[in-house]
C-alpha cells in the first residue's frame, strides 16, 4: 500500500463529549524540567495540562459545497425514457460542517491560531472554549503557503499559550500534542521530537516541519505542539496516514515560522513575500567534490535572474548559499522557506562560499510570489484522475520553472497508478516543454505511443512513464 500524506482536518463534525476531572496534586519540580508528582508520589503532567489546555480550542466551520449530479440525468435517452424535465444547469449546493483545532496566543486581543485548510471557504467559524462557551470568530488573515490562519474572538477570561523558540528544539525533546481529533473534544497525547527541518513533502509551499511521534489524528489540524515547560513550539498540520489514521509520523509548523507569518497577517491580512531571484539545487557531496568546495550543507546557485536582488547583490552561478541573516541553510527547500518568510523590501545578509572563500553579501528583496486562489481542471486519457492547473504566482517554484501543477490525484485512478502525485509539476511530455494545461493537452493528443513526463517533485527532477 502506498504511503500517503494527509491533512489532519477538517473532518466531518461529530458529537463532542468532553469531561474533565483534574485533582489538585502536589508537585515537585526541578529548576530545568517540570517534574510533577501527584498525592501518591507518581509522575504526572496534570498540573501542566491544567495550565495550558484552556488555551487550546475546538473550531467548527460551516461552508457550502457543490454536489455532483448523476450523469444519467443528463443523458437524452434516459431523460426521454423517464419523461424527465430539463434540469437547471447551476450546480447543486449543500451545507457542510467540519471541525479542527486552534490555539489562543494573545488573550487580550483574542487572537487564535489555526490552519488555513481548516477555515478555507468557511462562511461561519465557531470557536468552542474548554469551558464549553461558543464564540463566533472573525478571520483576520490566512496564508496557504504555510497553512497558517489567524482568527479573532471576543470573550472574557481567555487563557493564552506563550510562544516558544522552535529553533532551540532538539531531536528527542518531549512534546505534547493537544487538539480535537475526530471531533471527540480536547485530547492530549505525548511523544518526542522525531526530526527537525522536514521538507520536500509537498504538503505546503514553504516547509520546515517539526516531526513528532505524539499521536495526532484527523481533526488535530491547528492544534498545539507544546514542550514540557508549557510553551507553544508548533501548530499541528499533517500526518502520514497510509490507513487514514495515526502511525506515529506527524508534522507541525514551527513556532518561529508561525510568528513570522502572524505578524504580517495582523498588519496586512496576508503575507507579502520577497524574492531573491535565483535558481537553486541541493548541495550534495558529489557537487562539493565537483566544485572543490568544503561545506556540509547549503544551496547551490544554478542561475541568477537578470535585474534581480541576487544579481544586484553580486550572487553568481556556482555560489553555495550557506546562511541567511546568520541562520544556516540546510538545503534548497530550506533556503526557499527562509526567503519566503522575509518581508518585501527587507535587506538581508547572504553567506556564500565562492572558490573556497566565505563571503557576505547584502540584498534587498523584491516582490515575490503571493499565494492566491488555486483553480484546476480534470485531466482525461492517460492522466485521468488528476486535476491540473497552470503554474501561477504564489507557487514556490514560480519563476524558476515552467510547467503544469498537479493539484489533486484521485485514489486508484489511472494517474495515481502511474505514480503521479499532488504537488508534482509537469515540465515536459516526451521531452517537449509544456508551459500550460492547454499546451500539455495539445502535446498529449499528438502522442500515440509511450508517454514519459518530466516531473519536478520538490527539489528532485525525474521521468515518469505513463502507461
Structure description:
The model is unreliable at 11-33 and 370-376 (pLDDT under 50). The chain has 3 domains: 1-85 and 92-269, Beta Barrel (Thrombin, subunit H); 274-367, Roll (Pdz3 Domain); 377-466, Roll (Pdz3 Domain), CATH 2.30.42.10. With 467 residues, the protein is mostly beta strands. A hairpin with a 3-residue loop joins strand 15 (224-227) and strand 16 (231-240). Strands 26, 27, 28, 29, 30, 31 and 32 form a 7-stranded antiparallel sheet that branches. The chain is globular.
Note the overall shape: globular
Biggest sheet statistics: 7 strands, antiparallel
Q: Pairing-aware structural class of the strands and helices?
A: mainly beta
Question: Counting H and I runs of at least 4 residues, what is the number of helices?
Answer: 9
Overall average residue pLDDT: 79
Oligomer: single chain
Tell me the name of the CATH class of the largest domain.
Mainly Beta
Percent of residues in β-strands? 35-45%
Number of strand elements: 32
For the record, the count of structural domains works out to 3
Under CATH, the topology of the largest domain can be stated as Thrombin, subunit H
Our Rg estimate from Cα atoms comes to 24 Å
Terminal-residue CA separation: 20 Å
Amino acid at each position: 500500500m502506498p504511503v500517503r500524506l494527509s491533512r489532519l482536518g477538517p473532518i466531518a463534525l461529530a458529537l463532542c463529549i468532553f469531561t474533565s476531572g483534574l485533582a489538585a496534586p502536589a508537585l515537585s519540580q526541578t529548576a530545568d524540567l517540570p517534574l510533577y508528582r501527584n498525592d501518591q508520589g507518581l509522575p504526572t503532567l496534570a498540573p501542566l495540562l491544567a495550565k495550558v489546555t484552556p488555551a487550546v480550542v475546538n473550531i467548527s466551520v460551516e461552508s457550502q459545497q457543490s454536489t455532483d449530479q448523476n450523469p444519467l440525468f443528463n443523458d437524452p435517452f434516459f431523460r426521454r425514457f423517464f419523461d424527465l424535465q430539463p434540469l437547471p444547469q447551476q450546480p447543486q449546493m449543500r451545507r457542510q460542517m467540519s471541525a479542527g483545532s486552534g490555539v489562543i496566543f494573545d488573550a487580550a486581543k483574542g487572537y487564535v491560531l489555526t490552519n488555513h485548510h481548516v477555515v478555507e471557504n468557511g462562511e461561519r467559524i465557531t470557536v468552542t472554549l474548554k469551558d464549553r462557551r461558543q464564540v463566533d470568530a472573525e478571520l483576520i488573515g490566512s496564508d496557504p503557503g504555510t497553512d497558517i490562519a489567524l482568527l479573532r474572538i471576543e470573550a472574557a477570561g481567555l487563557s493564552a499559550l506563550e510562544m516558544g523558540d522552535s529553533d532551540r528544539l532538539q531531536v528527542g525533546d518531549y512534546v505534547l500534542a493537544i487538539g480535537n481529533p475526530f471531533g471527540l473534544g480536547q485530547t492530549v497525547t505525548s511523544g518526542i521530537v522525531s526530526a527537525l527541518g522536514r521538507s520536500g513533502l509537498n504538503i505546503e509551499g514553504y516547509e520546515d516541519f517539526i516531526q513528532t511521534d505524539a499521536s495526532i489524528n484527523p481533526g488535530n489540524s491547528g492544534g498545539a505542539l507544546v514542550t514540557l515547560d508549557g510553551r507553544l513550539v508548533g501548530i499541528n498540520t499533517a500526518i502520514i496516514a497510509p490507513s487514514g489514521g495515526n502511525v506515529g509520523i506527524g508534522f507541525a509548523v514551527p513556532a518561529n515560522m508561525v510568528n513570522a507569518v502572524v505578524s504580517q497577517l495582523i498588519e496586512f491580512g496576508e503575507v507579502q513575500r520577497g524574492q531573491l531571484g535565483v535558481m537553486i539545487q541541493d548541495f550534495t557531496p558529489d557537487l562539493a567534490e565537483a566544485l572543490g568546495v568544503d561545506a556540509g550543507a547549503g544551496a547551490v546557485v544554478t542561475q541568477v535572474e537578470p535585474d534581480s536582488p541576487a544579481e544586484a547583490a553580486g550572487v553568481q552561478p556556482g555560489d553555495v548559499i550557506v546562511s541567511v541573516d546568520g541562520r544556516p541553510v540546510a538545503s534548497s527547500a530550506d533556503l526557499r522557506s527562509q526567503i519566503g518568510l522575509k518581508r518585501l523590501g527587507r535587506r538581508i545578509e547572504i553567506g556564500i562560499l565562492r572558490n573556497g572563500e566565505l563571503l557576505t553579501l547584502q540584498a534587498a528583496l523584491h516582490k515575490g510570489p503571493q499565494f492566491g486562489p488555486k483553480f484546476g481542471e480534470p485531466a482525461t486519457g492517460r492522466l485521468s484522475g488528476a486535476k491540473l492547473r497552470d503554474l501561477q504566482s504564489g507557487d514556490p517554484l514560480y519563476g524558476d520553472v515552467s510547467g503544469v501543477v498537479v493539484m489533486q490525484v484521485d485514489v486508484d485512478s489511472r494517474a495515481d497508478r502511474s505514480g503521479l502525485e499532488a504537488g508534482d509539476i509537469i515540465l515536459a511530455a516526451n521531452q517537449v516543454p509544456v508551459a500550460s494545461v492547454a499546451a500539455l493537452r495539445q502535446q498529449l493528443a499528438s502522442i500515440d505511443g509511450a508517454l514519459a513526463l518530466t516531473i519536478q517533485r520538490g527539489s528532485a527532477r525525474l521521468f515518469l512513464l505513463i502507461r
